[in-house]
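I'd like us to work through together how a protein chain folds, taking it slowly. To get us started, please write out a protein record for me. Label the sequence line and the structure token line clearly, so we can match residues to local backbone shapes. Once you have written the record down, we can walk along the chain together.
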Amino acid sequence: MAAGGVRGRVALLVVVVVAVCLGVAFVAVYRQTAADLSRRTGGDLRTDIAALERAVAAGSPAPQAIAARARRFLGHEPFRPTNHVVYVVPAGHAPVTNEPELLGLTVLDERESTQTRSAELEAARAFLNAPAGRSVHVLPDAGKIDLLVRPLLRDGRVVARLGVGEPTAASARAKDVVAEAFLLAGALGVVAAVIGGLLVGTGVAAPLRRMARVAARVDRGDLNPRMDVHGRHDEVGVLAESFDHLLDPLQDAFDRQTAFVADASHELRTPLTVIRGQLELLAREQDPQPEEIRRVERLVQTEVDRMQRLVQDMLLLAQAGDEGFVRPSPLDLEPFLSDLVRGMDDLAPARVVLGEVPPLVVRADGDRLAQALRNLLRNAIEHTGGGGVVHLGVEAHAARLRFIVDDDGPGIPPDQRELVFDRFHRVDDARSRDTGGAGLGLAIVQAIARAHGGRAWADASPEGGARMVVELPVRERSARRTERPPHAGATGGVERK
């Protein structure tokens, strides 16, 4: 376990928290126990001194009489000598106590040194002359004693001093028992905290370490491993799930990038091979004919134009995710689409029919939208053939606007409809480079649609061929009333014949 690892830090944090909690609990319980013992001792002392006061106060206030009543009271042994030290000091009279040896009122042991006897006498005098109230004294042969002193008054004067003391050894033992119990419980608690902290730290660190290993493999270019943390709904589980979800688009983007580079290399290799082959053939000629030179020139120019278009399309797709790729502005749909259809006159012998256009002004990038629709129309015209019809329609549904291109060509198989918008994808071999281009036109359509916040998809057309739909969100639109253009046909659209 690394000293600075998550597992060690979590375990240390758990141990510190448990230790602090145990320490706070110990201090609170210990103080409460000490306070309870002190209150109980104080109650016992007050009860005992009250009984002593009642016994010695009933009768003559003469010192001899008070001393006699005190001796009678102590003779009945109402106090447990091992627990209490009781004394009565009548004014001007020798003290009366149940522990005369303890208080130096008997002949001292001659075996003790003078210094010891002097210390015992000094402690006894301080005990007997303690001020009124509660105080703690130390007697050499008894240890600490909690003493309560109360003066006995008669006619406003002190006729005697009463004292009841209780050794604190029992309270000290009780507090020691509490401390020992807490120390034992605390030690067990800390051990349990260490074990629990290590378990918790392992549970937290294990998926993080796995995530680190997965990240290291990702950094080396391997995007296949996943966290696969199942059954966890905590923050670590959410983080692991987010990490897996992050890798999915990275894997997809990496696969697409690899395929894109491979396809682009393949697409560029073909025209380069053609150009190189033609130039090599021309170079073998000792005296090439002008017709042959012009033929090679036309062929090379065609391939160069194709590569130029391919590079431009690739750059366009690379910019599709950049900010500013589309610049929306108010766009009047009716004249916009009419001009777009008229501009398709030189593309193919197919007929392009523009359906009814709602009189709307929407916010969109006219140049990008025209580029997407031209790609769809070119694609439909190329697959319709001579005498066919291509329909361009517009539908407005609440906050969505759809541009629909229908043709009567061979259509698109259902399993290919989602793939036709991928880069360099061709439905079949019939779509060669000579007729179908490099396979980037529909990918550009999808990129422009998504840049507007919409999407594009393929479906079956009622005309029997393919239907291409571009759907855009309408963030701002307004209706306008316009006269129909003079070139509108019976269907209210623009036709190309």
The CA atoms of residues 337 and 354 lie 8 Å apart. Residues 6-57 form the longest helix (52 residues).
